[in-house]
Amino acid sequence: MATTIKWSRGMSQTEPFLQGYVDLQRFPTEVDRDTRSIRRWMDEVDGLPYVQLGSRRLIHLESARAWLMSRIKHRNPERRRRKR
Prior knowledge:
The chain is of the alpha+beta class.
């Protein structure tokens, strides 16, 4: 879904204004998750970033990727299993 901008003063240049953004209905299919999970991610303290335009919530894909990358968990190399 691309929105175009009409520049003033006779300029008729058009460009996709919301390129790189998807709405909340489409994003769950992009990440193979339920809409409820996405809403829960958005409600977290340091949650999934989004933009609210009126009643629409738009998610910037690059920001969402960066947010997901920041949540990667690495195994602790110092931790060892207990012997039973």
